[in-house]
Amino acid sequence: MAAKDSPLKQFEIVPFSKTELGGYDISFTNSSLSMIITVAVITLFLTLTVKPRSLVPSRMQLVSELMYNFIANLLSDTVGDNGKKYFPFVFSLFMFVLIGNMVGMVPYQFTFTSHIIVTFALAAIVFIGTTILGFANHGIKFFSFFYIPGVPFYMHPLLIPIEVISYLSRPISLSVRLFANMLAGHTLLKVFAGFVVAMPFFTGVFPLVFIVALTGLEILIAFLQAYVFAILTCLYINDAYHLH
Amino acid sequence: MVDEHKLKELKDRIETAKSSNTPNTKKNKESGAGFGFKISTEIIAALVVGVGIGLIVDKYLGTKPFGLIIFFIFGALAGFLNVYRVMRRIEKQ
């Protein structure tokens, strides 16, 4: 495993206690704890801030309403009227990724979105869900999604595999984008934190200043990646309704 | 009425405050690295799928290098298609 003070040590999964069920390791790890904290923060924040239900909202209620409006507008812009049904799904996904990234920004806190298995599981849910939705809406005609009209017939043997591969690559690009952004950002923070200690005399101040700026950038990226995840989910839902 | 005059004045003030605030908020600046990253993941994802299909085809049909070669090329083309779609989406915005 990585050295004691390696910048990659922060991504190590540490089980609190070894638990096995039917040969599978289902230990409660620091990653699980991070996810539970995320869900708890989301639930508490949203329920407590919206509880007063005041017509003139308080600041915190305004934040909750802002998030609601943000996703509601995103759905109505990309999917249209059909999109209302999927609001709970997209909103949960967005909040889970966003707050998960933000919880990861707290020092000493584990970032579960920096593990590809987590982001791939989320992307797979989106991919399988939208594929089922496409078949539910169009039946067998959903396969015409891979058929581009207005192309000479001899091009189809070439174009249909390309379209299929392009479709199958969706969950991978969706998950890799989120995972790699978080992984790279957090590693970079740790590497520069190492410079602060390693550099002689007072020069350690410069990487420290850089880390402060980088932390701001990381918070921006945390938000941006959650937004990208949500908007791509919306686009895929839209594709399940409108072939081409 | 005096109130109406006052209201109109207030309305004007709100309008000017709004117009002076809004134009700068819509900044759609994205770093070059972020943009490059978005494009590269699209290509890599399509290549991964293409190579995966190629290896599976080779394994079960026993067509050893050809499945991999053909689906690698398909994967690369699908990657270009993905990039084209991303660019078109950006153009639209």
What does this structure look like?
- The complex is a heterodimer of chains A (244) and B (93).
- Chain A is mostly helical and 244 residues long.
- Chain A has one domain.
- Chain A is 66% helix and 4% strand.
- Chain A contains 7 helices and 4 strands.
- Chain A has a two-stranded antiparallel sheet with strand order 1-4. Chain A has a two-stranded antiparallel sheet with strand order 2-3.
- Chain A starts with 14 loop residues before the first strand and ends with a helix.
- Chain B has a domain of 62 residues.
- Chain B contains 3 helices and no strands.
- In chain B, α2 runs antiparallel to α3.
- The two termini of chain B are 47 Å apart.
- About 5% of the residues of chain B have low confidence.
- Chains A and B meet through α5 and α6 of A and α2 and α3 of B.
Overall shape of chain B: it is rod-shaped
How much helical structure, as a percent, in the residues of chain B? over 70%
Number of strands of chain A: 4
Q: How would a crystallographer describe the biggest sheet of chain B?
A: none
What is the topology?
The complex is a heterodimer of chains A (244) and B (93).
Chain A: E1 15-17, E2 20-21, E3 24-25, E4 28-29, H1 30-50, H2 59-78, H3 87-105, H4 116-138, H5 156-168, H6 170-198, H7 205-241
Antiparallel strand pairs in A: 1-4, 2-3
Helix pairs in contact in A: 1-2, 1-3, 2-3, 2-7, 3-7, 4-6, 4-7, 6-7
Chain B: H1 2-21, H2 32-61, H3 64-92
Helix pairs in contact in B: 2-3
